[in-house]
Structures are given as structure tokens and as C-alpha cells.
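Lecture notes, unit on protein representations.

Consider one protein chain, 278 amino acids long.
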Amino acid sequence: MTPYKDFYQRLKLLIAKNPHLIATTLSNIFTMRLIGNKTNGDLTEIAITEFINQYMYDFKSTHVGKELYRAKKHEEDIKIINEITREEFPVSLKAYGDGPLQLSTDKDFLMFPKLQAMGNTIEGDGAIATLWADPVFSDFSGLNVLPLIYDEKNKRCNILVFDHDLAKKSVVKVIYESEGNGRKHPVYRFYDSDGGYVCEVRYGSGTANALQRGLWTHTKNGLKYFTSVTDGWVTYQHNPILVKLFSHALLSTTVGHEVALKELKSDIDNQKSKSSLR
């Protein structure tokens, strides 16, 4: 079992025992969408980092920070350390609507050209094995992505993790599909033995932006290749008091922040005392 898989299975167990903790956190996270989409994404990273530190005693998490972007070896937003094994691993957090989900940006533009070199249709045990053995796809199973998939209309969220190992075992055919049907660029789609969608690699030229390239999947079409950490949808509610708190905090001094922080810590401790965290 990989360190990341061990982590998200432990997270799943924690949530199953204490659903109120994740419901409260998700409500606060998605309240940030009232301020702005980008604000929501950035604060999600901070919120999940603190959730791990407060409620998962065997793990420690650090927000990587945007200033380290150029030095990053992985597409990571947070770093997690298993306090028992001392294993350390990066995690990329995503907040996406229910549908297409980007797993990797393929920043070096290698995946699509490699598939092109293999032809428009790649199938057969030998060809598929060659694909997975290629260094370009060597990190396919090492992508630690924690997606918070939201349905804004119904105010609900499902934390879904893509099962890369199951996907690799299941793929029997990769097919080039040209632009059209709303797409500006071609894709290579991966299919299983039932003809079911698994994932896709989007156009990889240097002229393509981040939303036109890389490894993608789809939370509806490829649902059987996901594990739900929350065991399905969790309903959340907007918290307008939180928006007011932020607005006041931006005008307050550190003295006021320290007083407020003490109250917030007390509230978190109260939640811990009412929860099963072991």
C-alpha cells in the first residue's frame, strides 16, 4: 500500500466515524465561493491542511505555498508526513464541479506526443504494457490527487480519489479522437474491456494552455474508477457569518486576531471532545 493510499483510507475511516467534522469544514470551504472561485481554491488548501493537523493525530500536513512553485518536483499543494512511519508525500488538492477532472497538467508536454508516436489506436497486451512501461507514464500511479467534487446547485460535495492502479489494470484500448463535439483539440481516450471510459490525455503542444493538455478523467463517466472518501455526497450549507468574520479580520489588528483565534481554538477543542478520533 502506498503512503498516500494509507492516508486517504485513514481519512475515510475518520470521516465515517465523525461525519460532522467534514460537513462543517466543507460548509466553510464552499462558503468561500461567495467571495470568489480562486479564493475558494486557495483556502481549500489551507483548510484541508488544518483539518489533517487537528483531527488526524498520526499525520502532519504543511501548506507548500505558491512561492515554492518553481522549485516543486510534483504538482503539490500540501505535504503530508506520516508521524508513525515518517514517510513524506505530496498531495495536489482540486476543487472541481462534477464532471471533467484534471489529474495532471503534463507540464513538459510529453504524454500526447508519446501516444501519437504509438498510433491512433493502441491495443493488445503488448502495446498497453509498453505504454505503461514508458518513462512518460511512469508516474501515472504516483499522482496523489485529492479532489473535492462539488455540485453547487444542490450544495453537496463528494471527495473522490481516482484509483490509478485499477485504471492501469483495466485499460485495454487507447483511441485517438479528433477535435469536434465541442473540443478545440484532439484527445486520446482510454477504455476498459466493457468499452467504458477510464481517462484521457488531452492535446500536448506547447501552444495549449493548462486546460487543453495533460491527464484528465471524468467523475461521472469514469465513476467506477474512483473511491469516495466521504462515502458519497455530503450536504453543505453556506456560512454567511464566516464571510463577515473575514471582512472584519481584514480590518483588525493582531490583537483582535489573537483574541478571535483563542475562541476558535476553543471551539475546535470542543468538537474534538465530542468526536471519535482514535
